[in-house]
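Notebook B, p. 112. Complex prediction, attempt 2.
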Amino acid sequence: MPRRARINLWRLVLFSAAVALWQAISLIHGMPFYISSPSAIGARELQWLADGTLLFHTSITLEETVAGFILGAAVGIAAGFVIGPQRELGEVLDPFIVALYSIPKVALAPLFIVWFGIGIWMKIILAMVTVFFIVFFNTVAGVRNVDPDLINAVWLMGGSKWVILFKVIVPHALSAALTGVRIAIPYALIGAIVGELIASNRGIGYLVSSAASQFDTAGVFAALIVLTILATILNAIVDLVDRQTSRWKVDADLSLRPN
Amino acid sequence: MSTALVRIEAVSREFLRRDTRQLALEAVSLDIESGSFVCIVGPSGCGKSTLLNMIAGLIAPSSGRVTHGGTPVTGPRLDVGYLTQKDTLLPWRDVQRNIEMPLEIRGFAPDERARRARSLIETVGLRGRERAYPRELSGGMARRASLARMLIADPELLLLDEPFSALDAQLRQEMQNELLRLWSGSGKTVVFVTHDLEEAIALGDRVIVLGARGRIVRDEQIALERPRDVVAIRRRPEFHAIEERLWEALAAHYHPEPAA
């Protein structure tokens, strides 16, 4: 059996065994309140699928994630390009930006509720803020850390200031920004979910917290499984971006500040 | 001594290092004949790269002047090609688009760029690697791509700063022969900086040995026949005689840098 197939087979075995064990324990000891059971969770999943609950809440969360991600990435890249080349401005702003970055984003949620209400925008902004910093720091590093030898080489070819800007600095910075964008994809989901957990009446985060408040453990697990699948899909997208860009992307080790 | 393409006239260059002035070059004068292959050899710190960078227009002399075709050099020129030891291919462009870059800067149409690039890719032996990115190339292939990029705009003066010193011995010889093949009959002028005396003799029509602060301690015409094979020519008795003479000049003026 080829290695790949063997690994997949073992994964399937491990997964089935865990589910079977879970099911067995809940049948024998009957602790639906604590661990529910795979069959109850599966039934809930099917019920949500049938009555549209799943589609509705998933689409809300996805909407917040994507909107927050796009806004955060766009503003992060734009701000990075503006502040990146201006070293003095950057140095002036640095402690403030780092201070803002250091605040756990969850702690900002109550403030965002005051400013934006408990609707979808509060979650979008929370996702956006999370994404913004990651993309921003990478873009600034990308603008600043262009290899001077590359600039000299293009200058020696007869490249003007504009040629150097658009054919060396901008591509280098965009390449570094892309690294930030890639890392930020799962963080957008985290931002949206955190917002939903704190205050909402829709979305997967809401599904989790509302089920928990009704002591509906099967509902909590069912919602978590949906969340897991969503996160897995986002990670697959990250992998895809990696594969598409790793051939030419500049090294980004010089970029991100501590997470 | 008729047609000097590049004239270096009493050029000095000072650098500020840790608040003290240091002379990298002191009153160096040198003419470079059009169409010749000139090698500049010297120990590290002798100012040979500084001299080359001045011919390229990358740095200005503190005093004296450098002229190219009769006009003072004030910055990079379109008719000069420059190759450094380090690869400076743009990582986000594939081989062909990297090689096309100088033509892009000069405003050539895309199909003309592609036509010329493909023909040069053929010449330097990179066929089949047009769409590879620099990171996917071996050291030798990256050198070939850099050579092609330097040559595509057909510069009349080629400046090379230790272009092959990062390669292993065998690959270095291969690239040296490649360079001679590309140069022979082209009428181009080459200034080749190296710290490797053998390389200088094997390649050059003329070898200039620099001592401290760019002082020319020996300037010798190399009367070996062309075309040359860099491996075969090293076995010739004349080669050894030249090498011995130049080595003596190099050693006599070699003063190790005082410890910092």
